Amino acid sequence: MLVPENTKCECGHHNSVGTVLCEYCGKPLHQDLQKSDEPLEMRYDGVARRSQKSNPSYIDRVWNFFSSVKIAIYLIVITFLTAMLGTIYPQESSFINNFDPSTYYRETYGTMGHLYYVLGLSHTYESWWFIGLLVMIGTSLVICSLDRVLPLYRALNKQQIRKHHQFLLRQKAVYKGTLNQDAAEWVSQYGDALKKKGYRIHREESGTALLAEKNRFSRWGPYINHIGLILFLLAIVARAIPGWQMDAYITIPDGDTVQIKDTNYYVKNEKFNVEFYADDELPEQLQGKARAKKYLTEAVMYKCVSDCGNPLKEPVLEEVKRHDIIVNSPLSHDGIKLFQFDFNLNPRLNAVNPVLEDKTTGEIYGPFYLPMKDAELHYELGPFTLDLYANYMEFALGSDGKPTTLSRDPNAPAFVFTVKGPGLHPDGEPYIYFPMQKDKVRFAQDTINRDLAERIEIRVDGMENVDFSEATTVLNVRVDRAVPYLWVGAVFSMLGLIMGSYWQHRRIWLRVDGAEVVLGAHTNKNWFGMRSDVAFGLKKTGIEVDPKSLDNGGKNA
Amino acid sequence: MQVVILAAVLIVGGYAIGTTLFAERGSGFLKPGERPPEFSLANMEGGVTSLSDYAGKPVVINFWGTFCEPCVKEMPEFERQYKKWQDKDLTILAINLSEDTLTVKNFLNRFNLSYPILRDEARKTERNFALRQYPTTFFVKADGTLMEAVVGGMTEEDIDKRIVRLLQL
Fold it and tell me: How far, in Å, are A40, A231, A363, A524, B29 from residue A43 at the CA level?
């Protein structure tokens, strides 16, 4: 680090600490830099960065840490490396149901997997240290940019036209020559020539010094790019706000309505449809296998308008959207997207509409509606009454010999009624009813019901009286309210990149002392173009030079 | 301006890091020290019972179903424990695994249970608790954090031991 002994330039201008080139005349301020004749380092026009202070306070030190580009690069590299660690094994967030990370990693990937889990790498991108790194990169972006853009803006806003000889002759494109005409007139001609190339011309009052400049706006490109990146990072951080991001799965059998967790919305699967490829549509090795051609969920989204979250009442729902969900065509409403994710074709019995037959008269009563879950407890069918007093979803006899249920899904439903009616005991007689034919046979319904089986029969006539879900659809619920902000960030970022990449800030300074012309030119890239601009102007004023001869060395691609 | 920017960074960054530190791992099974998710469920008396009604008291949350034999076996044991520790302000909340009303009522008629029986609906609460097997019992300390979660059936001695620990904590 160069420490200046004196910040006052010989031109009389006072520069702030850390200035490399005098803000006014451009002369190098440091002794050793003055002695050298290498091309000058023109970064930020040689002005001091904001953070370069002689007596940094505690806050200044924090500021200085983040204002370092070296630190920024370290942070970015560390973030990239740790982000790579997160890709070794699947992340916890990529699993859906019934997943216990504490055993999964050990069982699937052995000791390495367990170590991976213990170190917290199974949720790398949600870990405090990873978010911490992103926050530090964001801080560094803000501070690095501010630290440089403000002094640079000031320097470019009040540029001195007549520069010091050392400044001019140590640019990477330089011309030195003698005039044989009036200086002011020549400078004016040169300025006019550059105007044609799109330069803005600033001439000193004496008319013997000139500054031509074009495309200064491209200098702001990197900073606009940084604003975009900051917006991008803020949007990512904003995902932590409750309700901003969701990635969940819901399983809905045909005809069911399910609430989307943590929202006021419900989804009904009216019908799930699946179409398979016929054998002649498939290549030989896939023939005979069920390959789905189309999955489609006829879905309806509802909004709960009252009695929401009241466990004692059914919520009141209002339809808000109806859409046939197929792969890549989600139902989308209020930032919530429902994607087709999976399905299964296990049927589920929902309800039957059985009739009661009086076997003595042949009279048939009913049908009556009997859902598998929460059925009515009392039915009146002609002269008969049925009182439901027990139901079993998966009927079985328990270890104590009493009827029990093996699950809560209607795999082998059974209903026990007390039947009253003509010719029956006044207190009623018990009757067990198995809606599924296979269970009726397996559990010998007629044997259990004994005499009553001779008198009455409860049965379903025809499949039209059976309501069942043929399939179950699995939908992926996604909410990402950060996406529009990510786009805005991306647009800013791209705009900044384009500004900085496709345009170059070009400046030409010249001064005439007596008959001697000294010209220096600076750009950030495309020196070939820079030199041809200088040579073009010279040619127009009668000075023929080979653009290559203007090259003053240094790295100037 | 430095101060303003650094303060903004602290607030935004602090919030971002803070939420990751205190995030409830939504899909994961409750670990000791974590707070169980709140629920408000219908009880058998036609009212609503919420976990927060018992804030500041030790609570045992037991998930059960009539289809689950070890759950059924536990119920009278819980009843005896409930009676035993009632004067110590112990609460037992037995959440039924989304079965229908008739099934639950018939079951309860067979047992004479005095502790609150709650009705989960459409498996919402059980999903929030990330239940994988039945029965599962959560012993929640008076400060509202989990002491222990037990998956599978317990003997009365197992239950008693844990309740003693729960009440001493």
Answer: 9, 26, 102, 9, 56
